[in-house]
Recover the amino acids of this structure.
């Protein structure tokens, strides 16, 4: 368990909000689609992560105990069900959501979870999200960036966003391998796909949503970005500064608010993969600790090392309590 304390000396729980799992049926389908050839593009169908991805029971809890994580917010690993045909995606989403519900029921104080739903079947996905929240008690929705190279600025996906807003649950916009428009440029740099390509893919996705007026249409929709906001917090001032100029040149009708205003009111970020002192301090200065949550990115990252790195970062007791626990409780409605 976490040994950190807050300003009054009360224990602070460590909630970790971007934690992956898989079910065997999804692995089988990913393998079938990939022709059995594992790659960054095929999804996590092989490799050292597999046993941990498949364990949403006692083994995972034991690691959380040993590493100092109180609660994991679980989500199906990228690319989720977004590569499948609509029917397969929907049926595998229902299975994964049911399985997640069972795991949380077994360890209600240790797990929370995000529903998965296929954006390629938006109306049906919206119904499945409603079931996952109202019947299964899940805490949000995960979307692994693009769906067949389309992004959430495309109105065909908006029934799913409308449902998330109406149900008052956040959408965790998680990276996956870059879509076709970016792939050629980014995938050519072997070794940099995750560290840079995922940020460009997912950060661009978030900006497309802002640019398309998604948050004018759904003003209460809340999006979560990992990796301290996929570099966007560090660029907000520049984006605000150049946006009116660029829009003025092209004659496009500008958004009613500055781009950063949507980011500040509709986005929360997690520290997944970014538990480093300088960028975390910058994110606190830019967004405030109440827009930041801890995440380990288990099992892709070494959970124990991440917790140790995070605990070693200098934070005020208030900041630590906020980032470790309180922001996550608010965003994901965790009691
Ligand atoms: Mn992740």
């Amino acid at each position: 368990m976490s040994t950190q304390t807050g300003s009054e000396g009360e224990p602070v729980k460590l909630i970790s909000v971007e934690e992956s799992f898989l079910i065997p049926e999804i692995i089988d389908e990913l393998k079938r689609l990939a022709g059995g050839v594992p790659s960054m593009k095929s999804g996590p169908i092989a490799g050292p992560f597999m046993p941990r991805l498949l364990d949403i029971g006692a083994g995972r809890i034991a690691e959380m105990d040993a590493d100092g994580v109180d609660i994991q917010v679980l989500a199906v690993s990228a690319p989720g069900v977004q590569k499948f045909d609509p029917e397969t995606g929907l049926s595998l989403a229902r299975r994964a959501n049911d399985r997640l519900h069972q795991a949380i029921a077994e360890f209600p104080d240790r797990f929370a979870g995000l529903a998965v739903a296929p954006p390629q079947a938006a109306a049906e996905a919206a119904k499945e999200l409603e079931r996952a929240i109202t019947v299964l008690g899940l805490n949000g929705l995960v979307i692994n960036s693009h769906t067949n190279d389309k992004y959430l600025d495309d109105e065909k996906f908006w029934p799913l966003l409308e449902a998330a807003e109406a149900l008052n649950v956040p959408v965790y916009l998680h990276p996956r391998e870059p879509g076709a428009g970016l792939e050629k440029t980014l995938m050519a740099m072997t070794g940099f796909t995750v560290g840079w390509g995922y940020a460009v893919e997912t950060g661009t996705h978030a900006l497309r949503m802002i640019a398309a007026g998604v948050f004018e249409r759904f003003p209460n929709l809340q999006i979560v970005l990992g990796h301290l906001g996929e570099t966007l917090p560090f660029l907000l001032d520049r984006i605000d500064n150049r946006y009116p100029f660029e829009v003025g040149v092209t004659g496009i009708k500008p958004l009613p608010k500055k781009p950063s205003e949507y980011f500040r009111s509709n986005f929360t970020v997690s520290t997944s993969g970014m538990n480093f002192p300088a960028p975390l301090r910058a994110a606190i200065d830019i967004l405030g600790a109440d827009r930041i949550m801890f995440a380990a990115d288990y099992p892709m990252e070494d959970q124990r090392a991440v917790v140790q790195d995070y605990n070693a970062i200098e934070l005020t007791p208030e900041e630590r309590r906020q980032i470790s626990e309180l922001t996550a409780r608010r965003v994901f409605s965790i009691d």
Remarks:
- Strands lie at 15-21, 71-76, 111-113, 115-116, 141-144, 171-174, 223-225, 267-270, 292-293.
- The chain has 15 helices and nine strands.
- Residues 18, 20, 174, 226, 272, 297, 300 surround manganese (II) ion (CB under 6 Å).
- Residues 122 and 283 are 33 Å apart (CA to CA).
